[in-house]
């Protein structure tokens, strides 16, 4: 009750302030990028520009509402969980002290960290996406939401825009009220059904009450289950906005106003059927479900998500026969919620990547490849124009991990702590899918090239300095440019893809904060190393002076 309002106020004021202060810039950046890009055609540009006021209004409303909801949840629940953890102390005095102290200052600092990550996402990550949208359009066919087998002139495509607008507005008028009515009618059943299931699990020690570490959170779930029901109703209302607006896309794809209206009606029936299945009510729905596609999608597997695909394209079966996603070595059972979070496999991999980047940075500092001045300039720079530090250093670290895995004969990636992550034991996470599979493809490409030590040095230079020839020539690592132009182009392509993977990772909200912390640690390490060298040199000079006096 004391810390919660403070932490929540910091998050609400910080996040809402970021949204409102950067809102004019977001509007200008978005409009400018849409006008300048060649990635989309004129018809789609016009449709997006017309829909921008609605999208920006949703961003303001959902951003402010979501910030307030997350702030209240974080501010009140984090100290509460910390109090549960405090009672795991052995002595009564420690229980009393930690019960008061834990979750106070840490929660306030955590709320500031959340605001900082959110600001990084709005001020750094979003402009990077827009910059790529503007600059990566050369030699590429413009994207369109039209079907590939339909040949229409630009004027005919522009004539579809009024129908798209009408169906989009119709979707908002129809879907939002009907989604709201369905959600409100079924919310009492969801409330009592959830309480019944939670109480049954509590009595039989099943489900969330099976693990001791989850008992406090599961107990709170019983008390705050009405809030979950209210959140589900609000989520249904918010989702109906995007579902209704998607009707405009259906009209443009199908080139039919009637099919767009059919989509609006069908989505209401789909939502009713989905809620029936989720709440274990009767199957199906009594609402009409007209078809809004000209033909059934026979290649539905093309749009399905493959959860586990090997590098060579072999797909592992899903279900009980699939290899368990367990990261070795096995971890000890957690005693607290915080320890359980630290044992998440994705957290372990992310922490290892950060530590590896720090270690590679120290190695480069020891070799004088990068200097304290380079790190300090990047840290003080208003924009990330020092690509050797912002992109080259993490790309070089990732390259060293790949090369180390190849030398060890690993089938996946060999992390710095000796743990191997491969297709069998990797975490089944969507974010990891975007990162893990491309890295393994690069690993196989490097293996297929059978590059020599001199070519490895050339690849390291390309990856670290990102085309900066002057800095690359200053580093004597035994690199040698291949005589074959084709082989040189292949190595350059690998370097560009490695940097591209890191560039995608740099857009994540927590990346900027963590990488700045790594740079600060490297600066401190470099200054400490230089200070020890100076003290060692001064001690040597004093010893020589004493020896000279003794000889005299």
What is the structure about, briefly put?
The chain has 552 residues and is an all-alpha fold.
Judging from the principal axes of the Cα atoms, what is the shape?
A: globular
Order of helices and strands: HHHHHHHHHHHHEEHHHHH
Number of separate strands = 2
How many domains make up the 3D coordinates?
A: 3
Radius of gyration: 29 Å
How does the major sheet shape up?
A: 2 strands, antiparallel
Oligomer: single chain
Topology:
Blueprint: H1 3-36, H2 42-86, H3 92-101, H4 105-135, H5 154-204, H6 215-223, H7 225-254, H8 257-278, H9 337-342, H10 345-366, H11 372-380, H12 387-407, E1 413-414, E2 420-421, H13 430-449, H14 453-465, H15 469-474, H16 485-505, H17 509-551
Antiparallel strand pairs: 1-2
Helix pairs in contact: 1-2, 1-4, 2-3, 2-5, 4-17, 5-6, 5-7, 5-8, 7-8, 10-12, 10-17, 11-17, 12-14, 12-16, 13-16, 14-16
